[in-house]
Amino acid sequence: MRVLEGLERRIEAIVRGWTERLVGRPTDPNLIEIRHAVLDEVEAAVEPAGRGERLFPYDRLVLRIASPEPRRRTLLEMTLRDRRFLDELRARVRRAGAEPPAALTLVVEGLPEPAEDWGDPRYALELGFSEARTAASGPDGPPAAHLRVTRGRASRLSYDLRRGRINIGRLADVLDDDERLVRRNDVAFDDDGDEVNLTVSRAHAHLSHEPETGSWRVVDDGSAHGTRVFREGRSIEVARGSRGVRLQPGDEVYCGQACLKFE
């Protein structure tokens, strides 16, 4: 922890120095805020992987920043492209209990204005996969997982998702007691007091793609009401802490009492 705090202080000193040289004034607090927000978001992307292990599945980070001022945009790009910031990102992944990929890369793009779909008008972070990782899963990355909600209420009735890991739970954003983001659910059941939805844990389960076989597995993330797969008239329990159950088209995935059909 002391090593990480020392690294963060050194990075902030570098930021202050660059800012004063480029714009001749003390550090813009937004620059430090963006950096800390990105670090928090990367740390929150570390997920349970079963058997007490934790995983950071991404090896390519694309950070887009926005400022209408060209000089300030240049400052942001210089600061965030620095190798020491990438080292700090690695340290945050380790602090969350996972080992960062050896080939982790960070791409920084400066734009004059934010896109409409950015959650924060200052920046947007995209967690993804390098060409080498994508090639291992096929030319277009992992095959799309088609999920249809058949019991319970979610933000959408059906999902068509193409990524290596798909989180399932209650609420889109899961926060800890200090209101920090700890997980984002791709399939988010509503937190509306519905009896079925209440059996879905906030961090309930996830689907994991296997590049070697091209198949998907469902893994329980320590849910309160369990996860099971219903297939051809029989129920298959997804044991907590296991590698999960390999899915077949037509399987019904039960998260507590809520159900998703895998197609």
Map the helices and strands:
Blueprint: H1 2-23, H2 29-44, E1 47-50, E2 53-55, E3 60-66, H3 70-81, H4 83-95, E4 105-111, E5 123-128, H5 131-137, E6 145-151, E7 158-161, E8 165-170, E9 173-175, E10 181-184, E11 187-189, E12 205-210, E13 215-220, E14 227-231, E15 234-238, E16 245-246, E17 252-255, E18 258-262
Parallel strand pairs: 3-4, 8-11
Antiparallel strand pairs: 1-2, 3-5, 6-7, 6-18, 8-12, 9-10, 12-13, 13-16, 14-15, 14-17, 17-18
Helix pairs in contact: 1-3, 1-4, 2-4
Would you give an account of this structure?
The chain has a 6-stranded antiparallel β-sheet, with no helix packed on it. 27% of the residues lie in helices and 33% in strands. The protein is an alpha+beta fold and 263 residues long. Strand 12 and strand 13 form a beta hairpin. The radius of gyration is 20 Å and the shape is elongated. The protein folds into 2 domains: 2-128, hypothetical protein PF0899 fold (2-Layer Sandwich); 137-262, Tumour Suppressor Smad4.
Quick overview of this protein structure:
With 263 residues, the protein is of the alpha+beta class. The chain is built from five helices and 18 strands. It has a six-stranded antiparallel sheet, with no helix packed on it. A five-stranded mixed sheet has the order 11-8-12-13-16, with no helix packed on it.
